[in-house]
Hints:
Helices cover about 10% and strands about 30% of the residues. By secondary structure, the protein is mainly beta. Among the domains are: about 135-220, Phage tail protein beta-alpha-beta fold; about 260-325; about 405-500, CATH 2.40.50.230; about 510-545, no CATH class. Strands 1, 2, 3, 4, 5, 6, 12, 13, 17, 18, 19 and 20 form a twelve-stranded mixed sheet that branches. A four-stranded antiparallel sheet has the order 22-21-23-24, with no helix packed on it. A hairpin with a 4-residue loop joins strand 14 and strand 15. The chain is rod-shaped.
Amino acid sequence: xxxxxxxxxxxxxxxxxxxxxxxxxxxxxxxxxxxxxxxxxxxxxxxxxxxxxxxxxxxxxxxxxxxxxxxxxxxxxxxxxxxxxxxxxxxxxxxxxxxxxxxxxxxxxxxxxxxxxxxxxxxxxxxxxxxxxxxxxxxxxxxxxxxxxxxxxxxxxxxxxxxxxxxxxxxxxxxxxxxxxxxxxxxxxxxxxxxxxxxxxxxxxxxxxxxxxxxxxxxxxxxxxxxxxxxxxxxxxxxxxxxxxxxxxxxxxxxxxxxxxxxxxxxxxxxxxxxxxxxxxxxxxxxxxxxxxxxxxxxxxxxxxxxxxxxxxxxxxxxxxxxxxxxxxxxxxxxxxxxxxxxxxxxxxxxxxxxxxxxxxxxxxxxxxxxxxxxxxxxxxxxxxxxxxxxxxxxxxxxxxxxxxxxxxxxxxxxxxxxxxxxxxxxxxxxxxxxxxxxxxxxxxxxxxxxxxxxxxxxxxxxxxxxxxxxxxxxxxxxxxxxxxxxxxxxxxxxxxxxxxxxxxxxxxxxxxxxxxxxxxxxxxxxxxxxxxxxxxxxxxxxxxxxxxxxxxxxxxxxxxxxxxxxxxxxxxxxxxxxxxxxxxxxxxxxxxxxxxxxxxxxxxxxxxxxxxxxxxxxxxxxxxxxxxxxxxxxxxxxxxxxxxxxxxxxxxxxxxxxxxxxxxxxxxxxxxxxxxxxxxxxxxxxxxxxxxxxxxxxxxxxxxxxxxxxxxxxxxxxxxxxxxxxxxxxxxxxxxxxxxxxxxxxxxxxxxxxxxxx
Length: 759
């Protein structure tokens, strides 16, 4: 923006045609313009207005006259320009002040008309001159800088434009910014907001040797400000002004400012607030305890590491910016050497001691050249603003931070070959669609350096408990921004896209809800928990690609209304610590293809309501440690296709209530209540016959012991997070023990704590 003089109206322009000189030239003129392709006499300055200020782009608007009607804007726009003005010199040597810049605008405003309406052979033009830094207002971008300080970012940007006419005259140690985004803002806005926050300001040094060159100077220390030449300018009121650099009027403006600047930030690694404050060093004349508090302070990095020293520096810069505007001076002058960013003192200072030094903050120029005969002497004047140099200058935080208005999506990235890239907090790295620094545009991929670690929002997050879904490389995630700040992204979800389709056949399977994973690395397998809500087909489906671990801390209850089917590919091992009860409402069928081992530690009971059938394909052996009893309610039959052996170690007793009958072939012995009847082909007593020995029964083999069942994986419980009230209570206890006095709020909290103890 161009600024007018602050004192009075613009001077009316004289009708140059009434007393037009025979020629237009720069001879004996005050203002001169040199362009790359045109001489000083081709375009002459009629009027000049301009604005310069610390941490602002200078701009000069020139009204030009020429005999030529074919001045080509294409040869002027974007090209270098040198603006010169003669300065007052006490030795009358004809010194000059230079401004070097570039033409940002050139307008042909028409042919000059006389007061009588006659067309003259003089043509008027307008021209705007700006610094090289102005080109950065025409460059808008979205990009990311990582692990660079503010000076590093400036150097990176300028090197990309092959610009080297700048100087970083910095004294402070500016910290690295882990993640810094330029987002939908011009490069000038981006650099301006960074340096304002860092306590850096800029101004321009102009080459005085006729070259179209100026130096863009960045500084953060008042001791680096150079002095004007001459470094002392006299004060003369307007009624006694002489033809020399002089201050014509001077006034002061003092304002109340806040007493303290405080910034705070959230350190999520330490789960606490970091706060730093800086009180004013000025006597502001008020006891009102005002404070300027700002949150978030943005000095905790996206990595989550807080730095109190950085926070202290930012709060100091914030306070110094307040103090810088506490006392300002303004005035008018004809001093053509006044330059923003430079320091000088005022001789015969009407407000302060002559030794007081001032930093020039801004200058607004107005000048007329004496191009036409009869228009009088050339005119130059300016208005200015100053600050006492003893106070540190900090630019106000006037450049707004860029904002992201709503969530965006991004792509998860990682090192080549990685399917999952995360850290101990489950954070991921992402690439925004607007980040044009992509490794391979064809595959739309980029490595893990695309961003810093970004936290992922989960539906539950406690100390060692909660949920954890880690987005994988290649997924499209939804990213929100804390406070709308592009430097503070947070992942809040995932979305499907063309390459990544849902795990359901939609819309055909729209009644299904599922959590389905993919085996990593390489895929080929999955785990899934799926819910089917289709009417009369409701189902819960669980798929474990390899192992399924279930652990129940106390009771487990299952109720199955219809059938239960269990298919085991290999082994089933069950371990029951105490009792097992099995109740079957109807039939129970078990089929064992090979062996069965059944071991009972103490007693074994089998109750059969009607019939029991045991069919042994080969041998059967029953061994008891002591007695064996077999009782039939009615009849008992023992049949062997060959032999039956009954052997007793001591006694063998056979008793029947009615008859005992022994039969071999046609021979028999019958015992009944009527007597003993022996029938045989030949009956011999104590003579003949060879009795057979009974065979001992085979000993039953012992059953194999069952294998021990494997235990399910033991989970680990999380920890209860203490509330902030508990932390505050502990702090109050410590303060009470140390004898530290409480403020009013803390005293109320202390009484509340005492009431809790007593209650």
